[in-house]
Each structure stands twice: as C-alpha cells, then as structure tokens.
Write a structure and sequence with these properties.
The termini are far apart. This protein has 408 residues and is mostly beta strands. It has one helix at 2-15; strands at 19-25, 31-35, 42-46, 52-55, 63-65, 72-77, 121-123, 130-132, 135-139, 145-153, 158-165, 172-177, 188-192, 197-199, 210-219, 226-235, 240-245, 271-274, 279-282, 286-291, 297-305, 311-320, 334-337, 344-349, 355-361, 366-372, 377-381, 388-395, 400-407.
Length: 408
Amino acid sequence: MNKIITSLFLLVTLHGFSQTSDTVNSQGGVNDVYYDFESQSKVTLDRATWDIGLTTDMRGASIIINENGGTELYLYSADTSDWSTLDTAGFDFKNIYNSESTWNAGAFANQGTTHPDYGWGIYDMNKHDINGNRVFILKTKTGNYLKVVIDQMSPVGLYKFRTASLDGSNLKTYEYSKTTPESMGKNFALLDLDGGDFITDNPMAKEWDILFTKYITFVQAGPNSRYQPVSGVKINAGCNVAKREGVSVDSDDTSSLSWDTKITEIGWDWKTFDRMTGSYSMVADLAYFVRTQNGAVYKIWFTDYTVGTSIYSFNTKQLKAGTLGTNKIIELNTSVYPNPTADVLNINNKENEELTISLLSVQGVEVLSSTVNAHETKTISTTDLAKGIYFLQLSTTNTSSTQRVIFE
C-alpha cells in the first residue's frame, strides 16, 4: 500500500503542475529582482551598486550600462587619440542605450555595425584581439562624468580599459578576466566606476529565468512620446517567450504560438496606467509563456502592479518539465586543448556518454561536426581551416556548452 501511495504521489508531482500566486517587491523600483520559476527563489540586487557590466561569455564582447540605475552613455569620438583633447563645448549629449532585443548588444556595442566592428573596438584578424576605437563619455549613477576607452579584449577574455574625469584627472586603468572566479558563470561582471570595485551580488546565470527591472524604451504617448524608464520584465539568455492575447489566462494551449528570444518580449505593457485613479490595471486575457534554458515551459500572467512601492503580483503555472527535471545548467566534464592552436585541437570527453561536436565560424556557419565517445579523446586537424576565432559547441543528451577557440 505504501508503494502505491508513493507512486501516485510521484505521478502528481511530475505531471500535475499547479498554479502558484507570487509577488516581487522591488522596493519602489530601486532594486532588480532575479526570479527562478522552478524554485520561486528571488535574488535582489541594489541598482545603486554598479555602472557597467562586462559580459563573461567567452564568445561575446557586450558591455552594458546600468541605464535603469541612472548611468548614461554618450559617444564622443571614433578616434581614441581624442582622449587627451576631449572637450565638451558644443557636444551633443545624445544617449546610447542597451539593446532591448539581446544581452549581446550592450550600450557600448550599439555604435558598431557587424563583425569586425564591435561598437567599442575592432577585431584584429591576425592577433584575434578586439582593440578599442572609440571614446565615450559616461555619467555614473551618482552623477559624475567620466571619459572611457575600452582599450582591448584579448582572445582569452582579458579586458583592458581606462576611465578618467573629463579634464584627464583621476585616471584609473583596469584589467579584468572573464575567468575570474567571482563572476565566472554569471551573465556579467558588474563594476562600480565611482569606487572602482567589482560587485558580486548578481546571481549565477543558471539560477534565474526572468528579471524584474527598469529599462529605457521609447514610449508613444501622444505629443510627449520619448525615451523613458519603464518597470517591466526581461528574460535570461537562453530563454524564449510566447505572448498570447485575447484568450482566457486559464487556457494552457500553446499550439498556435510563436516563440521569441527578444529579452523584453514580456516587457512593461501588460499594464496600463489610469490617470484618473492613479493606479494600474492589467491588460485582460494576456498571458506569457516562458521556455527556460532546459526546455521547461511556464505560464505567467500579471494580476496587479502597485504605484510607488512597485510590487509585481502574478500567477505562474508549469506546463512542461525540463529535460533535466530542473532548469539548472550542469557544466560538461570535458577538456579542450591547446587553445589557441596552430594545427590540432584535442577534445577530451570525460562524460559517461557520447559527446556531439559542432564548430561554428564567427558568422554562425557550421564548418565541422563530429562526435566523441565516452571517456575518449578526439584530435581534430585545424590546418585546413582559416585562421581566426571559432565557437565550439559541445553537447550530450541533456547538457551543452559553448566556448571560443582560436586557430592561429
């Protein structure tokens, strides 16, 4: 009898997903709150603690600003030699914002076009560095104005950059590696430019799905249409969102929906402000579906948003379990060496199952695919491939990882 009861309990646990009501308190909008659907855990980050964020993705060159905390960014010059002669007389302080579509295009990158121009620097095809080519003016969250040059990002993920007051005083130089233990595994390494210190209060990338935050967007409001801060929700990298309107939020049907990777797809406009009552009302029959990093699907719909305290009230319901039974990413037990390499690349698979290999160019084109048996090492010749940066995707049944490799 006990075995039968246990089995029934497991079936309900695995297949009988229930609806949950929850709230997120951003303390009047001054905090960011990272939310995990599975555990319903919340990690709070004070926006007053950082100014810029350096991506820790070995494939990326994104540098974001804390635009929701008061940091502002302006392009001064496309010539770094203008650093020493910077003069703001007559300068047009035109704001540069983070991308609303992807975490891979922070404000510093938004002046670029495409490879090899990464917005703050140009990729060197021979040495595989990204070297700074622009001078920026940045207003910190406390109102201090600085000039900034991102001098270089090396092939192994070492940033070199400098800041100074506009008159050249208070020069600070920085070096920061993407493999620094305190920030490795997080989306960004966050830096306070006023104090010159990195902070580590943001959660690991695998520990959250959506972010309750503020960001800058263009709001159309008649003659007063302009860029302004809004309170809303962003999704984590690796998640997808489907939006459904005009159907009761009680429905779990997702068959006709299209999925989007835009990080502000949930955004802010699930609520409307009533000037007569000074309060928000929720858009009727509007629900969002979030597919997490491991394929689990959750439905979320909002029930209230309070003015002043900026408390989000919402319901969630899990519709599909993830392939791992959890949305936590597990690191692959593999070794890739040497990197950089001139002739061969060795991939040592320490997993208990076959490893699938896919080698992509910087344009995302697959140039090689293969497999490695469990507990074996495969050697790949690179002599027939063009020199440069590639992305090596490694995956097993339930887990995947991507790393940058360099062929010299």
